[in-house]
Write a sequence for this structure.
């Protein structure tokens, strides 16, 4: 079966507070449709919390990868995303290099991750099928 390419964008992967992702239905799906020039895909919805207080990126990626028929979950992705210490030698971690700080709790310091570590992780699951459109969206 052909795998579906996943398009990563700053808009999609920073949508951590999207109301539909905070529903009580952990595996709700919707029909694919076109709306306002955008294609809405039939991807599963997973709850980010309570396990991952700062885990919106890996939760979003789990939804997309599972839509592309990759068997993974947010906790596996949380372990596999490149990690960067919150602070080392007086310098704060770089969100372009990896997930900075603690993803699981807000009780410890953390920033999150930007698109590069997420795209790098996605590439491990779907080699050659990941298109990071972040720069294209920011240039518009």
């Amino acid at each position: 079966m052909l795998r579906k390419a996943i398009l990563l964008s700053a808009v999609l992967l920073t949508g951590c507070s999207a109301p539909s992702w905070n529903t009580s239905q952990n595996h709700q799906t919707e029909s694919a449709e076109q709306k306002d020039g955008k294609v809405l895909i039939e991807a599963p919805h997973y709850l980010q919390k309570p396990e991952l207080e700062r885990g919106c990126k890996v939760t979003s990626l789990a939804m997309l990868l599972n839509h592309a028929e990759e068997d993974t979950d947010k906790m596996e992705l949380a372990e596999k995303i490149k990690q960067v210490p919150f602070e080392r030698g007086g310098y704060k971690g770089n969100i372009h290099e990896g997930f900075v700080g603690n993803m699981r709790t807000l009780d410890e310091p953390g920033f999150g991750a930007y698109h590069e570590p997420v795209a790098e992780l996605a590439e491990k699951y779907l080699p050659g099928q990941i298109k990071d459109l972040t720069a294209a969206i920011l240039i518009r």
User: Anything to note?
Assistant: Residues 1-15, 17-31 have pLDDT under 50 and may be disordered.
